[in-house]
Amino acid sequence: MTSNAMFEGVFCPSITITKENGSVDYDNWGRHLDHLADSGIDGVLLFGSIGEFYSIDVHTKAEVVKFAVSRVAGRMKVLVGVGDTNLDNVRTLAAESEAAGADALVAVSPYYFGPSPDTAKRYFSAVAKSTTLPVLLYNFPARTGNDLSPELVADLAAENPNIVGIKDTVDTISHTRKVIVAARRVNPSFSVLSGFDEYYTVNRISGGNGVLCGLTNVEPETFVKLHRAWQKGDYATAVQAAERISYLMRLYDTADLFISAIKGAVKAKGLSISTAIREPATQLTNRQY
Fold first, then answer.
1. Which CATH number goes with the domain that contains 96?
2. What is the pLDDT of residues 186-226, one digit of tens each?
3. S-S: 212 plus which of 2, 11, 63, 70, CB 3.0-4.6 Å?
4. Is 138 part of the annotated catalytic residue set?
5. Domain count, the chain
6. What is the value of pTM for the model shown?
């Protein structure tokens, strides 16, 4: 059940762990990275949506990347979210990440204006040309205001050899399936990961490569169990793990913003972190926790 894809399995978009004053809590973040690696997670994404990328300055991000690469020490891949509305910031973080030894970059669509396909193509191509690292596209139309069509994904993969995959956070498998078909015509080993936790099995059935999703912060072991069972063809075990993930999905509805819910669940699992998220935000209450 394995493939030649560079990115396959289960990947965790890490929460950004801070102290109550907003400074980075390196001690607890290090413990969290250790837990993910020890559980068998295939890679960690720094500064995805759950990592509050939109609210953290480039200098802080660059320092965290250096820390994470050193802490992980090759036990899993380290991906860096370089999303920004300012291309100069994207290029800066891309260069810093490459110098630090990160394994790949993840680039979300510029948000707010929701670029046209031509603008999106120019933007993502500029990101790809700014680095020698592999680049994964990040499609999250509910937040960015525009959707990366299967045709656009295929065009980007054809024109930029280091664009090697996508995180497709679209709540319909038909979109992801069409992306898989279109991109694989151009690059047979193009990686397609779902951004929705409960889509692992249907993603794999459709020819995809796994998930890059938030609940891996909470129960990485369950996702690793699912992935390894699927790879072995042990579908009874895979279904059992998938049922647990389906049950855990209700966590997302327990807070005003899903980031708070994930932080609260990580804390409930035993890591003594602050559940604060950057303002403007509605913070997790004691009752919710």
1. 3.20.20.70
2. 999 999 999 999 999 999 999 999 999 999 999 999 999 99
3. 11
4. yes
5. 1
6. 0.97
